[in-house]
Write a structure and sequence with these properties.
DNA-binding, DNA repair, archaeoglobus fulgidus dsm 4304 fold, about 240 residues, 8-stranded mixed sheet, endonuclease, alpha+beta
DNA sequence: GCGACAG
DNA sequence: ATCTTGTCGC
């Protein structure tokens, strides 16, 4: 799929916050998705002392959850990690990885929050809006919001609130295990998002999509190691 | 002013 | 996120 970073992409935290304020109204939190036959997991990792961002995307069949395609992209890291501004650090590399995909996924599961964010534009919401695909935020910890106690059994969940609104759900994806923070990204409701996350999580705490993307973006991988990009065009030909 | 704070 | 070995519990 062909994608590219918008021309007005922010360079400073101030500009990033301003863009979030501008885009928040464009997020759709009601269901607008077709039949889901493929689900993609997206994750990011860092190498070279954090100077290089590695984005990975894994497309799985649904509901079989078998790997269909995966892509990895390396991009120089250009934005620091600032709580609330995660998308500006990770989205650039993610868009490159997604653009390399032959299979256009029907749904995106992202590491991080969807609208469970101070300005309702976490990375999952922002990414979904940019690529115009349904997306769900699947975070391993809380950014903002409060919630009641959560029963220990798999499948139980309680709403995540911020002021007077429900911004997401705290979901037990596995019995007696730390919960997941689920929220709508774009073009999907919270109820539907929870249902998909559970269907993508048959055995472990994290969805199969995320587990695949995690492994591909992680530093200690076993399989084929795609060489980090050479930025100085000094790619020498060892064979003359 | 103080504490919280996705990855 | 990343640095890193073994270890406790279902």
């Amino acid at each position: 799929m062909k994608l590219s970073l918008p021309p007005d992409w922010p360079t400073t935290p101030q500009a990033a916050i301003a863009l979030q304020q501008k885009l928040r109204s464009q997020i759709e939190t009601s269901d607008r998705l077709g039949s889901v036959h493929t689900v993609a997991g997206v994750d990011v990792g860092f190498t070279e002392a954090g100077t290089v961002t590695r984005a990975a995307v894994a497309v799985l069949s649904f509901p079989a959850l078998q790997l269909v395609e995966s892509q990895i992209a390396y991009q120089p890291t250009t934005f620091p990690y600032i709580p609330g501004l995660l998308s500006f650090r990770e989205v650039p590399a993610i868009l490159v990885a997604l653009s390399q995909l032959q299979t256009q996924p029907d749904l995106l599961l992202c590491d991080g929050q969807g609208i469970a964010h101070p300005r309702r534009l976490g990375i999952a919401a922002h990414l979904g809006l940019l690529v115009d695909l349904p997306s769900i935020g699947v975070a391993k910890s809380r950014l903002t919001g409060t919630h009641a106690e959560l029963p220990p059994e798999k499948g139980s969940w309680v709403p995540l609130h911020d002021r007077n609104e429900t911004i997401g759900a705290v979901l037990r994806s596995r019995t007696n295990t730390q919960p997941l923070y689920i929220s709508s990204g774009h073009r999907i409701s919270l109820e539907t998002a929870i249902a998909y996350v559970l269907q993508c999580t048959p055995k472990y705490r994290l969805p199969e999509t995320t587990r695949w993307a995690d492994k591909l973006a992680s530093n200690r991988r076993s399989g084929p190691q795609s060489p980090p990009p050479c930025h100085n065009n000094q790619q020498m030909n060892l064979f003359g």
